[in-house]
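Input for the complex:
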Amino acid sequence: MKVQCLKGFRDYLPGEMLQKERMLASVREVFEQHGYPPLMTPALEYAEVLTGKYGDEGEMLLYRFRDNGDRDVALRYDLTVPLARVLAEHGNIGMPFRRYQIAPVWRAEKPARGRFREFMQCDVDLIGVDSAAADAEMLVIGAAVMQRFGIENYKLRINHRGVLSALCRKVGLEGSAEGDFLRILDKLDKIGEEKFRQEVSGIPGLDASGLDSVLAVVLDASSDPREVLSHIEKNLGSDDLATSAIQRMTEILDIVEAAGIGKYCQIDPAIARGLSYYTGLVYETFLDDLPQVGSVMSGGRYDDLVGMFSGKELPAIGISLGIDRLFYALSEMGLIETSSQPAEVLVVLFSEESAPASFSAASGLRHEGINTMVYPKAAKVKKQLQFAQKSGIPYVVVIGDEELKKGTVQFRDMDAGSQDEISLSDAVTRIKTGQTS
Amino acid sequence: MKVQCLKGFRDYLPGEMLQKERMLASVREVFEQHGYPPLMTPALEYAEVLTGKYGDEGEMLLYRFRDNGDRDVALRYDLTVPLARVLAEHGNIGMPFRRYQIAPVWRAEKPARGRFREFMQCDVDLIGVDSAAADAEMLVIGAAVMQRFGIENYKLRINHRGVLSALCRKVGLEGSAEGDFLRILDKLDKIGEEKFRQEVSGIPGLDASGLDSVLAVVLDASSDPREVLSHIEKNLGSDDLATSAIQRMTEILDIVEAAGIGKYCQIDPAIARGLSYYTGLVYETFLDDLPQVGSVMSGGRYDDLVGMFSGKELPAIGISLGIDRLFYALSEMGLIETSSQPAEVLVVLFSEESAPASFSAASGLRHEGINTMVYPKAAKVKKQLQFAQKSGIPYVVVIGDEELKKGTVQFRDMDAGSQDEISLSDAVTRIKTGQTS
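Predicted:
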């Protein structure tokens, strides 16, 4: 019998999960600071809600089956289609509608290192409004997440679908013909100019005479977003799509600068975002110190998607946090607590008889806001100290027969290796101030 | 096409989910205060991990199917069997092992009012120790949850499997013959003495001459747990199982009294808990003011269960919170925030041109720890005020052209209906102190 985790899936053991949970709690806090409440949708949906939404490749990855009532059902593949379903089903939801959702999604991908068939998605979306303010708000939230985690060196790289379409027009491509060109453009920084020219030359209908203008725009390396915008205007300004994209991005820059996050924002005309459903602003977030991690937060405006079920046009913009990438990056950068145990204090159980005294002391410590664990058994004190050491619990309180009589405790600082007989309230002070003695 | 939530499932819209998420955050906090970190296991398990664990009826309710790789898989039915699987698979997990898990489980039950096929379970368990301290800790955590929510009038009703087995022996039943008797005993307070006598009379092998002693024990209405224990001792004291159960419960009482929660604990020899896998302490929690809600936290010691895969004996005790019942009760008792919007302030977007000023003010408010939403579009101010009203956002800040020039804001208290032109920092003070003017 297979007593093991299902292939392609994984457990998050308490040590790692504690840190992940704390990270998620911080993210929720940031979302709520900006006026976003959570939404929860079921793990299972009618299959027909999900089919036809993710392309042929995506659809193959659905966990789809017949339930006990012979309904054709599937586990959710992302959080956007369920959001669209909720908006259509609960027609009286007021607009503008804000929500975040942090929840697992399931995709039967080929398992690979770091890729699992169940993973957490973390989306925040603002529905019902197409405005520079709505666009800018996503960048403000993204920057607030980074600030919350103490990340200072990163760039929000911004582009606009209008710029991309104008670039496509430069090479004679429009509408559905844009796809291949944009997909190759998105890889430009990986494959380089030569390979880019070579790959796009295979696109039917491509007017290669416009490629120099395109490359002049997308290879502009300026870090000053206003400069990039005027450079785009110089090269593409005659295109009406480019003009309105530049206008929108200018307004967005005005707002993000006023919100104090201008220094993190760069315009990058090469960012195409793989997905064809973006209709306006698009953005990705890269860490200066860990570029190899890839984008840790991405998103954009997708005005034609969430209205798919209701038939109404429903403008929408969202940002999606790459929780696993962000978690990895925070660990690498030492910006996440490494303790695998929430308790700051272990109260030793000296003997069965002294259990009430230990629990009384633990209650007192918790009352002071100190996370406290009581060792659940009267084992040898040495063993209990080893447990504290192994679990990374920094302080230990022992109440033996002598201490019980005198109303004191033995207070041990595990890192310092020091031990003193003091009152419980002095122990509280030491823990709160972090002083050794 | 069915654009609707799957039958038997439900969405939690942002208003309700915000409150639920906050409740869960409090519960996590309490668990961590006691030294419990979270565990996360996948939604899907190999079917053979789950089959044979929940009885025939339970097994019929599994969401079981073949995945794309033709594996026989099922959605988790509870959090206990996955815990047992984790303990067997990760053999080097140190003992004592503590974890909590808050996660949805799936059961294809017949839908009914308030019963859904996906619901949240919330379990905290302590593995590897059989001791009075471990038993008492569960009651301490349970009481801490209640305290965290401001619930003062409730009872932790406690019993011990040894008492129940001794009661069964009184009527000549032992081992597997206990089941039917205990199931009927568990209903005693609902069906009454007469119907109880009638129903148990059908049990094969029942020695009815012992029924009076049984009823003398279980109908003892004393609220003093020590009195109940001596009453049990008087009636069942010659039974070795009863003797050690009384001994254990006495030690537990010593501890919970020292931990300051003695007043919430009652011994109730009639509590049998439906599940046959309990081996020691069992408990349920009832609200004095809402007894009809049923037990909001239950659990017990189950020493033979989590070792099922590893073959090792692994003592365990746990408590399970009835999240939905507790949420309902807290709402009924007015102990949960009713705001459906996390924002305390709405910053109006007076015009497209003033968007930077609005975002700057919002950043300032958030910096002061005040959850702030910017209206994402330059709509009519009246419309934006109505939105604040409808969303339950208590304060509104307006920065029009005049205020922009003067460096002031219009500060509106929605409840008071007052509006004043003040500085942003004065607005911060008013929001933090809750004063109207």
